[in-house]
Design a protein that fits this description.
Blueprint: H1 3-16, E1 21-24, H2 31-42, E2 47-50, H3 54-66, E3 71-75, H4 79-82, H5 85-93, E4 99-104, E5 130-133, E6 145-150, E7 180-182, E8 188-192, H6 199-207, E9 211-213, H7 228-231, H8 235-238, E10 242-246, H9 253-260, E11 265-268, E12 280-281, E13 286-288, H10 294-316, H11 322-332, E14 338-341, H12 345-353, E15 364-367, H13 377-387, E16 394-399, H14 400-405, E17 421-428, H15 446-454, H16 461-467, E18 472-475, H17 478-486, E19 491-498, H18 504-512
Parallel strand pairs: 1-2, 1-3, 3-4, 4-6, 5-6, 7-13, 8-9, 8-10, 10-11, 11-12, 14-15, 14-16, 16-17, 17-19, 18-19
Helix pairs in contact: 1-2, 3-5, 3-13, 11-12, 11-17
Length: about 525
C-alpha cells in the first residue's frame, strides 16, 4: 500500500472512531497524513488545526477532547514524537481519549541509524497502547491510543482526495444497572475530585451529607462547601466515619489525609482509579433511602459560613492578591460559561474563593489534573474553547510561570481556527509562589529560595503578547480586573493581573489557622 493510500485509510479510521478535530505539526515524513487531513477538512468531515510546535499541538488536541470534541494529533518522526509525551501522559492519567498519530520510517530502516529514525513503537511506555500501522486497516477504539504509521516514499500524493461518507462508531448503554443503596447512619461526607460529575452533588443533596467538591469536579454546585479544605483541620473532620468518593481528588493534603485515615471507610464510585489507600469499590449507581441526621450537615454548613466570613475579611485586608484574582474570575463566569484553570496556586486559590454555582447553571470548570503539570495550559485552554459552541464565554486562569511555559500556544497562523471568545487571566507575581507555601518556603531555606524556587523572571508580558498580536490588558487592582472581565474584546486576549507574592507564605499560614 502506498503512503498516500495508507494515510487516507488512517484518516478514514479516525473519522469512523469519532475524531472531529485533527491537529497537525508540519514535517516531511508525516506529509501523507497531513495532505489526507487537509483533503478531509476541505470535504467537511473534520476540522484541521496546524501548529509549529508538537508540544503545543498535543495539548491543543487534549483541550479539544476535554472540551467535548474528540481530537487527534499528527506529527513527524524523531524528536517530534517525544514532544508529545507530556500531553500523552496527561491524557492517560486524566482518562482523556485523544488519538496520537506519529509518522515513522518503514520497517527496513529501523535500527539502521537512518536520519530522524528512532524506536517509536511503545515510545510512550506501557501506559499507552501502540498500534504499529503498516498495511493493515486500523480501527480506533474509545480510549487513548497511539498509531505509529510506517510511511515509505513517495510522501506526496498524485491527486486530490475526496473522502466519502464515513460510518461513525457509536457506543450505547446495553442495560441500566440497579442502584446500590448506601445505609444511613455513619457520619459521612461526599468527596468530589476532578471530573466527578453531578452524581456527587445529587447524592449529597439526597442524603443530607456535606459535599467537599474541587473546582473541576463538575459538582461545585448547590450544597457544596466553600472552605472544606480548612474545615478538615477542625474537630468536624475527626468525626467523619465514612467517605463516598467520586472522581480523582488531587488538590489538597487534608483530603488525602482524610481518605487515608485508619477507621474511615472509603466507598469508591470510580474503582477504575488506582487509589493509594484502601477502598470499597462501588462501580454502579448508588442511592440512599431518605436523608440522614440534619444536625451533621448543619454543623458543617455553620462552620463553613463562619470560616468564609473570616477568610473574606483576611483577604480583603491583604491588598490585591492572587485570591482576589481567582474570586473575580469565578464571579465573571456566566451561566453556560467555561473556565479552564491552571495548576499550582490558581486552582487552589479558586478552590477557596469560588462559591457554589446554582444547580442547572451549566458552568463548566476543567483543569489538567491527571498529572497536575503546568505545561501546555495555554494550548489546552484554546483547544477547550474551540470545542465549545460559538458565543459561549470562555475564561482561563493561570499563573505567570504557567503562562510563560506555554506562551508558544499563542502562536496561531492567520488561517487557523480561533476561539471567538477566550480571556486568559494571568495572576503575575513574577515567579513561583506556590513553593513559599510548602516546606521549601520555610525560613531556614531562605538563602536559596529565590534562585531555586521563586525563580523571578521579569518578563514583559505585554511585549510578549504583542509579538503574537494578542490583545493584552495589565491591571493592578480588583476594580480594574473586574472591569476588564466585564468587557471582553472577543477572540483571544490576555489580562495580566499584577500581584505581590512577598507575603504569600504569611497569608497562607493565616488562612490555614482560621477556625469556626
Amino acid at each position: 500500500m502506498s503512503a498516500t493510500s495508507l494515510a487516507r485509510s488512517v484518516i478514514t479510521a479516525l473519522v469512523a472512531g469519532g475524531v472531529r478535530e485533527v491537529v497537525v505539526a508540519p514535517g516531511s515524513r508525516n506529509a501523507p497524513l497531513a495532505f489526507a487531513a487537509y483533503d478531509a477538512a476541505e470535504a467537511g468531515v473534520l476540522r484541521l488545526h496546524t501548529r509549529i510546535d508538537e508540544r503545543t499541538a498535543g495539548f491543543l488536541a487534549l483541550g479539544l477532547t476535554k472540551g467535548g470534541s474528540r481530537a487527534a494529533v499528527i506529527c513527524t518522526s524523531g524528536t517530534a514524537v517525544a514532544n508529545l509525551h507530556p500531553a500523552v501522559l496527561e491524557a492517560h492519567h486524566a482518562r482523556v481519549p485523544m488519538v496520537v498519530v506519529t509518522a515513522d520510517r518503514p520497517v527496513r530502516l529501523r535500527g539502521t541509524d537512518a536520519n530522524q529514525t528512532t524506536d517509536q513503537v511503545g515510545v510512550f511506555g506501557p501506559l499507552v497502547p501502540t498500534l504499529d500501522v503498516g498495511t493493515e486497516p486500523v480501527e480506533i477504539g474509545s480510549g487513548l491510543v497511539h498509531l505509529n504509521v510506517q510511511l515509505d516514499d513517495p510522501l506526496v500524493p498524485e491527486d486530490r482526495w475526496v473522502p466519502g461518507l464515513v460510518e461513525q462508531e457509536t457506543w450505547e448503554e446495553t442495560g441500566v444497572r440497579a442502584a446500590a443503596e448506601i445505609a444511613l447512619g455513619p457520619r459521612t461526607v461526599v468527596v468530589a475530585g476532578d471530573d466527578a460529575g453531578p452524581r456527587a452533588r445529587s447524592l449529597a443533596a439526597a442524603a443530607g451529607w456535606p459535599l467537599l467538591a474541587e473546582p473541576s469536579s463538575g459538582a461545585r454546585t448547590g450544597p457544596a462547601l466553600r472552605t472544606y479544605r480548612l474545615l478538615l483541620a477542625t474537630e468536624l473532620a475527626e468525626q467523619v466515619e465514612r467517605v463516598v468518593l467520586f472522581g480523582h481528588p488531587t488538590l489538597s493534603r487534608p483530603v488525602q489525609r482524610l481518605l487515608s485515615r485508619p477507621g474511615v471507610e472509603v466507598l469508591d464510585t470510580h474503582p477504575e482509579w488506582r487509589r493509594p489507600y484502601p477502598v470499597t469499590p462501588m462501580p454502579g449507581p448508588i442511592a440512599v433511602a431518605g436523608a440522614d441526621n440534619p444536625a451533621w450537615l448543619a454543623a458543617w454548613q455553620e462552620a463553613d459560613a463562619s470560616v468564609s466570613r473570616q477568610l473574606d475579611a483576611l483577604i480583603d485586608a491583604a491588598g490585591f492578591t492572587a485570591y482576589h484574582v481567582a474570586g473575580a474570575v469565578s464571579r465573571a463566569l456566566p451561566v453556560g460559561g467555561h473556565l479552564l484553570v491552571g495548576a499550582s496556586n490558581p486552582i487552589r486559590d479558586l478552590d477557596l474563593m469560588a462559591t457554589a454555582y446554582d444547580v442547572g447553571s451549566h458552568h463548566k470548570v476543567v483543569a489538567n489534573r491527571g498529572l497536575s503539570g503546568i505545561d501546555g495550559t495555554v494550548s489546552t485552554a484554546i483547544g477547550a474553547a474551540l470545542a465549545r459552541r460559538p458565543g459561549n464565554r470562555n475564561l482561563a486562569l493561570m499563573g505567570d510561570v504557567t503562562f510563560l511555559h506555554d506562551a508558544g500556544g499563542l502562536v496561531l497562523g492567520p488561517d487557523e481556527p480561533r476561539p471567538d471568545n477566550l480571556t486568559i487571566v494571568v495572576a503575575n507575581d513574577d515567579g513561583g509562589s506556590i513553593f513559599s507555601t510548602l516546606e521549601q518556603g520555610a525560613e531556614e531555606y531562605a538563602h536559596a529560595y529565590e534562585r531555586l524556587f521563586g525563580t523571578p523572571h521579569h518578563v514583559d508580558l505585554a511585549a510578549l503578547c504583542q509579538a503574537s498580536r494578542t490583545p493584552h490588558w495589565r491591571v493592578d487592582s480588583l476594580a480594574e480586573l473586574e472591569h476588564a472581565l466585564s468587557v471582553p474584546n472577543g477572540g483571544i486576549e490576555v489580562v495580566e493581573a499584577v500581584v505581590d507574592r512577598s507575603r504569600r507564605r504569611e497569608l497562607d499560614l493565616a488562612i490555614r489557622a482560621l477556625r469556626p
